[in-house]
Amino acid sequence: MRKSLVVGILPESKNIWERRAPIIPRDVEWLTKRGIQVEVAASKLRIYKDSQYERSGAKIVSKFNKANLLIGIKEPPIDTLIPNSVYLVFSHTTKGQEYNRELLSAFVQKRITLIDYEHLTGSLGQRLAYFGRFAGICGMIDTLHVFGKRQKLHGIPTPFSGLKSAVSYGNYRSAKSALSLAGEQIRKRGFDQRLTPFVIGVLGHGNVSQGAQEVLELLGAVTIHPRDLDTLAKSRTSHKKTIYTLVFQREEKLRSKKGKNFYFEEYLRHPGLFESNLDTHLPYLNIIINASYWDSRYPRLLPTRMVKNLSRANPDFRLSVIGDLSCDIEGTVQITKRATTSSDPAYVYDPVSGKIENDLSHKGIAIMAIDNLPCEFPRESSTEFSEKIRDFVYQIAAHGITDITNHHALPNSIRNAVVSQNGSLTHKFKYLKK
């Protein structure tokens, strides 16, 4: 009879903010009751204590003894990889990321079966394991915090002046109370006339975007269409006590370079024939939230040249903060030049000179680009993620095999997420050879 794999929960060590756990104690108990052995690497940083895992039936270890199904969140250090095992992580390798090419090579050379959460998808292509909702929630709170702090430095009071960063609240419940107060201030006192109508544009429709919109709903935001922008701008005072949200559709974000109508199927086939249409909307926005997917095949939605031209042409250019929740460096938002951190959440980019300043009072656009946002609510984000992956972990462990793509008793969602196996890349990921 085939033996079950032994689950090992990796310690997260990429940065000091990373306190999340891929599987929480409650779900460890769920696994152990089903006959799956679990080893947990001791960690003083993790949001859940070692003793909580021990009470749930896991063995706490300083070094893995039996574990051959290693479960983590961020990429593990190369020198810790266990050969001939299975890893289930966000590897950040499948876009050919240069900074992780050595890691990908190590997975292959050590004959490790790498399963990437990003590619655990359903029959319609939807992601099944993600932290996106909390990335959106924390990112939206941090963006509003940066906006409030920035306007305060410029002598303009806002309902967000007292809003702290997400990490300062520690959990969503505390943040919700602060957001509720901010919403009351909007309804009672509203925004300074210099900021009205107050409009936040949102790029993207996935889990991250949904999380950001969840926060805006708590503030009582009203959803509008791009055609409403001009009308709103002509009557600023009557919209003082409302926050507006504009979630851009594909045909509103993009246009054909040849002046043709926008067809999504054509865009997917020939993305190079299209360009950003945001220059028609950008002058009306106070904040932009970027929660959209991007890779080098697609046009940038906020290219450097566009932002520079608009800023030069309009002395009253209103865009104050960009919350780049996707944090693709020089990607969709080309002026995102570097990632930021929870302790130093934003920098200011001058679109005319191209200079970057850390002081939020400087002229330009503040860029909030924290690249590990769900860490700011570690307990809640861990709980939600653990619920999503525990069944996958059980299925892989219970079948007791590392040759996963050839084991048809496992669901397609798992087999299609295998990046490397038996010392080579799987067929789906052969493109990474180059």
Any overview of this molecule?
A hairpin with a 6-residue loop joins β14 (346-349) and β15 (356-357). The model has no long low-confidence stretch (mean pLDDT 94). The protein is globular. It contains 13 helices and 18 strands. The chain has 434 residues and is an alpha/beta fold. It has helices at 25-32, 50-55, 101-109, 132-153, 166-169, 172-188, 207-218, 229-233, 250-253, 264-269, 304-313, 378-399, 412-415; strands at residues 7-9, 38-41, 59-61, 69-71, 86-89, 113-116, 198-203, 222-223, 243-247, 254-256, 274-276, 287-290, 321-324, 346-349, 356-357, 365-368, 418-421, 424-425. α4 (132-153) packs across α7 (207-218). The protein folds into 2 domains: 7-119 and 378-433, NAD(P)-binding Rossmann-like Domain (Rossmann fold); 132-371, NAD(P)-binding Rossmann-like Domain (Rossmann fold, 3-Layer(aba) Sandwich).
List keywords for this structure.
2 domains; 15% strand; globular; alpha/beta; 8-stranded mixed beta sheet; 30% helix; Rossmann fold; 13 helices; 434 residues
Largest sheet: 8 strands, mixed
Query: What's the helix count?
Result: 13
Total beta strand runs: 18
Reported CATH architecture of the largest domain: 3-Layer(aba) Sandwich
CATH topology of the largest domain: Rossmann fold
Mean pLDDT: 94
Structural class: alpha/beta
The figure for the number of domains is 2
Kindly report the oligomeric state of this protein.
single chain
How far apart are the first and last residues' alpha carbons, in Å?
40 Å
**Rg calc:** 23 Å
> Which parts are unreliable, with pLDDT below 50 for 5 consecutive residues or more?
none
**Overall geometry:** globular
Name the CATH superfamily assignment of the largest domain: NAD(P)-binding Rossmann-like Domain
Helix content: 25-40%
